[in-house]
Amino acid sequence: MRNPNVPIGYRFSPSVEESLKVYLKRKILNQELPVDVIPNVDVYSCGNPRQIPFGKFCFRVGEFKHGPDNEWQFFTNKRNENPIQTTSGRWEELGDEEIQDGDDGSIGFMRELVFKYSNPEDKEKEKEWYIHEYRATPANFTADELVGDNVQEKFVSIFFGSAQFGPLYHEAEDEFKHGPENEWHFFTNKREGNLIKTTNGRWEELEDGEDKIIDSDVGIIGFMRRLDFHYSNPKDTEKGEEWYIHEYRANLAYFTADELVDDNVKEKISNFVLCKVVCEEQIPPPKPPTYSSSDDDMVDDEE
């Protein structure tokens, strides 16, 4: 079951600054959130992390989830003690740090806690669960916003908890990146052939590579092929980056007869694709040593 508040394919991954300056601040001021997907949960009343009521809020297998598979976000009441005892173990503090924005202004604090089981048998199957507590600071609020005891009280009683955060990619201040910082999605025209040349290199499909069939409960809905980028200039390959594309194209059989009446639709099925472009950092191999002409002593290129 998908959450009706958000579109299909949506993933929730705000930056730390966005979490503090937008979500937590608006929550404290009882203002509308950009998207209402963060539940109120008393996290520390749960015996262990697996007892946290993810349920309809975080959507387990087969249901919609707002972010990465190992991350969950909550608003909850702050607990000041360290460690925080539960019926099955304790949350131990690892550190507390001030969070600053891009202008070096203080916007809040983050406390990290890790969960430790009390039962030795549980420790053997223990996975590392940890929480990042994000707390607001009055410096992030205007004088008018600070009027009222209720707001002051919420500074110390409500925080934004999360397993972890991945920074968002921002091309410009008002632009939003929808996924991992090394992935981008585009609609584009399909290019035939397993070798697509560019001015700086080529996109090449593996020789033995076969298009992957994308299957679902209604049958084959499309196909995916992978193309890797190869630079023409050997110096460019030393950048330590690996670029590749996952090209997704629709299956004609997935469309109904009514949808295929328009010839323009058939043409788009053949010539229009969705591409996921991925950049992975590669560790360059060490340069081989060279030998001097005078003897067999190895000489380092960098010396």
UniProtKB/TrEMBL annotation:
PROSITE patterns linked to this entry: NAC
Region of interest: Disordered: 283-303
Single annotated GO MF: DNA binding
Sorted UniProt keywords: DNA-binding, Nucleus, Transcription, Transcription regulation
Principal localisation: nucleus
Recorded superkingdom: Eukaryota
GO CC annotation terms, alphabetical: nucleus
Pfam families per UniProt: NAM
A Gene Ontology biological process term: regulation of DNA-templated transcription
Residue ranges of domain NAC in the record: 6-154
Location(s), subcellular: Nucleus
Bias (Acidic residues): 294-303
Protein name: NAC domain-containing protein
